[in-house]
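Many introductory courses stop at the sequence. We go one step further.
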Amino acid sequence: MSYEHISQRPSTLADILVRRAIEQPTRVGYTFLDGRGNREVEDYALLLDRVIGLATRLREVSAPGDRILLLCPPSLDMVHAFFACLLIRRVAVPLYVPTSQRHSETVAAIARDSGAVAVIAPQSATSVARDLLGWPDEKIIDSAATPGNSSRQLLDTPPPSADDVTHLQYTSGSTGSPKGVVVRHRNLMHNLECQRRAFGHTEASSAVHWLPPSHDMGMILGILSPLFAGYPATLMSPLTFLRNPLSWLNEIAENTNTTAGGPNLAYGICAERVSPTEAEQLDLSQWDVAFVGAEPVNPIVLRKFADKFAVSGFRRQSFFPGYGLAEATLYVSGGPVGSGLRTRSFASDELEKGVVVEKPNGRELVDLGPVGAGTVALIDPETLRRPETGRVGEIWLCGESVTSGYWNKPEESEQSFSAEIADEGGTPYLRTGDLGFVVDEHLFVCGRLKEVMIINGRNLFPQDIEWSIESTHPGLRRGGCAALSTEINGEERLIVVQELDDDIADDGVAALEASIRSAVSRDHAVALHRVIFVDKGKVLKTTSGKIRRAHLRHLYANESESRAI
């Protein structure tokens, strides 16, 4: 059997899947909890059988290296589809079943860009795939496909190698058009090992995840990391979490040595929507790793969560802020476990100049821990040289976790993945586009190069302005604020787009605008050109919760569209 080599040292995630099914067949790998409280449980043996069944069908309509769209909702179907691709050397393209015209256009664009030859989808979504993509039925594979006698003869086929592509992780498009990041087995294996060490995962760990599997954090940390380290994961849909955040916390309370988390949004929703009585009935004392990432970490939100759930036994030291990106597979820095939320304050006026000066009661930034995957370099984005000590630089990365570029985009790949430090050369680096600095070997991120706003000659970070605004009035929706800049008569001006709760009366809007303008003037010494109030859900975000500022800026620039944001 071709897979006998895994008994020595597995080199791919497909190897690990087969080994676990052979050596630990009855150990639970995944549980899916639907919105009605029903559970679907799979041990490793059942998981492999279903993966093989789907891979057998997939092999009939595709060849090694072909791209396969995974048009599955959050479910065990997505798990099976991804591993089926890995097992027979197909390239997975994890997506989602579109629920709007905009989503449909994105999925169709990704299908064209990836050159996919087939799609895996549940029966409930096959008509969507047929109508959207215009493909014949033989190219649309039912995710529940389980041919009789699929058996393990499939394992006699040549196994994947470390350089084979596992999947294309399409970026969520917060700063531009979605691009397919090319992830290989060696990238995955390296990053998953770095995660295992950083999070302290063992087979005694457990996880509870609601993050969308079409996103890198949902797929890699939510689905792949548990299989790699050998611990069980309970999965649920993002819609289940959003409709009832208590369901996520209840599941965390039922497990031990638990890893769970998400962006700031997750903690903010729980703090606002779980009642004090419900919090008293929870036991979150076994929540060991409460990771937070995917966007700038807001310490205000995390403190509110910790205060609310102290009665539940939640420990502040469980917070695990981190930094990562799809281009580096996922994880870059974070922790260490047990260190909790740590912040340091810096002089805002100096940071605007790119100088790092600590100052009490200054701009509070979250410590994102030591770099645990690869090597980081801080580089002046204009000179491409290392700046003097104590200055902000663009974060550049190199190492085995750094992926090999964007699918079919050689120019963009060259620009982002093959940067060289001036006067040093040799080593290619990934340019992240993020700005930050290192203090005591720990990473701090202070903004994005493409999102820095230059107002009156000063560099302002939109997140700082958004956080100031959110705390001004209880009627302003948390996470529903976007600070933008636009050119007016040759000068950059500051714009704020802010969602309102439904119960805010029209006569209260003027007072809200006044409080927003006052907060921005007080905290940042800058005047607002315009405040645009919009309905709930109109501040568009990516699947990971990042505000799509570039898209909002485009809407504002077109006056006729801005009235209908």
